[in-house]
Design a protein that fits this description.
The protein is built from 12 helices and 2 strands. A two-stranded antiparallel sheet has the order 1-2. It is globular and about 55 Å long.
Length: 363
């Protein structure tokens, strides 16, 4: 009975969250309703993580990590496009700000917390440097092509691509992401599997029976419902967040950071759960896979949507953010190359994440 009750909430919460999304969409929310919506958002995040882990157990790694990363990113892209279309020319930098926030949250926040979780428990976090290095190289290339080059190109005014340059960046981003997915799931799948501990017993969850196909399909449907609810309720809550940010005297750009944090909560919790099971490779797959999908899927969609968008599409980062991105790539490379990380590396990544949040508050 306890197990059935535990499963029941993972069905009810996404349904209630989706219902709340339908009732609150496009409306100004009183404080009490905003609090209820926030609680349902948190519940939908937890339900999404549960269903993602059911699917991951059914299909195995690295497919499980890929399902969650792609599902969240697809819905996140839909949210960005809808906000840009409804917001007009004032949202020209929204895609850039959201994608950069996603890169910093995943590559520093999620990676740092995952390494911290493992190194506090085992002192050394071990992972596959070959697979993680490939993921990091792809993230660095995508970020440079899409977020750094627009600042230095001269064909268009401001930190923006010309139409031809944007088309090239979109095709290159999609091609690189597709190539990485093939590498991760087909040609070199073993590079992205957890590294077993010598002489250590396997995690008990690895011996649990695999969910049936019907259970996995049900979880896939509920995962999509939960993720739509998470992203939709994040948009519903955005006016409340904007009001809170404005009342606190913070820059308006900080709203994008808060929304990105909410949207990436499922990956964060799933990565920490994997780290608690000593499967830091899965945590890294989730973190870098989400960063990669955020760029590789967002830029092509934004390039197509720019046909209908008003005003310039600003993709180029400013000097401060480029320094943070460059430092993140260097530090991540030094973390990944040995295939082993200590508490020191987790601390460096978390300090970089804290610097990003602080500079978003006080630019």
């Amino acid at each position: 009975m306890i197990r059935n009750a535990a499963r029941l909430w993972t069905v009810l919460i996404p349904a209630l969250a989706l219902l709340a999304l339908g009732l609150t969409w496009g409306r100004e929310l009183p404080v009490a309703i905003a609090i209820v919506a926030a609680l349902l958002l948190a519940g939908a995040v937890l339900a999404a993580v549960h269903h993602a882990e059911v699917i991951a157990h059914r299909v195995g790694e690295p497919f499980g990590s890929l399902v969650l990363a792609v599902a969240v990113t697809v819905i996140e892209v839909a949210l960005i496009v809808s906000l840009m279309i409804s917001g007009g020319a004032q949202t020209g930098a929204l895609a850039r700000d959201t994608v950069f926030a996603a890169v910093m949250i995943t590559c520093n926040g999620i990676v740092g917390l995952s390494l911290l979780t493992v190194t506090l428990k085992r002192r050394i976090a071990e992972f596959n440097a070959e697979g993680t290095g490939k993921a990091l190289a792809t993230v660095a290339t995508l970020a440079t092509l899409s977020l750094v080059l627009p600042t230095f190109t001269t064909s268009a005014q401001g930190p923006a691509f010309s139409p031809a340059q944007l088309a090239f960046a979109a095709v290159a981003s999609l091609a690189l992401y597709g190539l990485f997915v093939v590498t991760q799931t087909v040609r070199h799948r073993d590079y992205f599997l957890p590294v077993p501990r010598d002489g250590a017993p396997l995690d008990p969850e690895e011996h649990a029976p695999r969910p049936s196909g019907r259970t996995a399909l049900t979880s896939l449907g509920l995962l999509l419902v939960a993720l739509v609810s998470v992203v939709g309720l994040a948009k519903v809550e955005s006016p409340v967040i904007e009001l809170a940010v404005s009342s606190a005297g913070l820059p308006q750009a900080f709203v994008g950071v808060v929304i990105a944090l909410l949207v990436l909560l499922p990956e964060t919790i799933a990565a920490l759960n994997a780290a608690r099971r000593d499967q830091v490779q899965i945590s890294l797959n989730l973190a870098l896979g989400s960063a990669m999908a955020s760029i590789g899927l967002t830029i092509p969609v934004i390039a197509v949507a720019s046909i209908w968008l008003e005003g310039p599409l600003l993709l180029g980062l400013g000097g401060t953010h480029m320094v943070l991105l460059a430092l993140t790539v260097v530090v991540s490379t030094l973390t990944v190359v040995p295939g082993r990380a200590t508490l020191m590396q987790s601390g460096v990544h978390l300090v970089l994440f804290a610097a990003f949040v602080f500079l978003a508050i006080s630019p």
